[in-house]
Amino acid sequence: MEEEFPRLYHELASWFPVLTAPEDYAEEAEFYMRTIVSGCSYRPETLLELGSGGGNNASHLKAHFSMTLVDISPGMLDVSKSLNPECEHIQGDMRNIRLGRTFDAVFVHDAITHITTEQDLKSVIETAFVHCKPGGAALFCPDYVSENYHPGTKTGGHDAGERSLRYLAWNPDPDPAGTTYITDFAYLIREGDKVRCEYDRMVMGLFNHGVWLRLINDAGFQARSVAFEPGEKTSAGGEDFLGIKPDN
Asked: Residue 186 to residues 14, 109, 156, 196, 237: CA-CA distances in angstroms?
């Protein structure tokens, strides 16, 4: 993980809800909820989200679980607290945080894509295992695995009263010998009648299907790949990973 925050998670954090709104996450959050429940041997009631960001997934999942949200960025936690005041928020690094308690399930959305080395990915999965109750499950949602990565561009953004944002995200070809790819962002930010352009770069992790399954199994989970149902709007790469923690 890059130790210096991307600008979106630091000085531009207040613009996150204008870049991507909670309603954009409703369909995929429903998929995540069903997947988490299906992986547990009991009906899960408590959910720990690692790398919870601006809380968009939590704004939907909190209807089903009592949630504890962990993120490394104070700015993103502030955004999430405004959206999810009823949830517990804790600042911490998902690679090494230890809360001293367990949860029925653990969820790591696309924040896992900011993990760029196999050792750090191993550490995040171990964090999830330590905090997951026996019989519970952990769901990991990378944007891509290396087998289905493709370069390209994406656009989006929203209006919020006097504030508006539009973005262009560009993913070029990755280094075939490495475990990362780059996403370059251009943000057009409007406040009233004034518009400015800001640039941001994110270095993202890219691991193959086999690495994901091996590390999840090595942590003590029983790993499985989760295929999305046709037509569901979910993360870009089309494959998530579920770790089921044995009852004993």
From this structure: 16, 23, 11, 10, 22
153 and 131: one domain? no
- Determine the structural domain holding residue 189 and report its residue range: 147-204
pLDDT at 238: 77
Mean pLDDT of 223-238: 66
Note whether 141 and 153 are same-domain residues. Answer: no
Q: Which long-range contacts (CB under 8 A, 24 or more apart) does 219-227 make?
A: 219/122, 219/125, 219/126, 219/128, 219/129, 219/243, 220/129, 220/245, 220/246, 221/125, 221/129, 221/132, 221/138, 221/245, 222/246, 226/35, 226/139
The verdict on residue 1 lying in a domain is no
Whether the pLDDT of residue 232 is over 60: the answer is no
Question: What is the structure's pLDDT at 229?
Answer: 60
Average pLDDT (105-118) is: 97
Confidence of residue 117 (pLDDT cuts 50, 70, 90): very high
What token pair was written down for 236? 């870009």
Residue 137's DSSP bridge partners are 105, 244
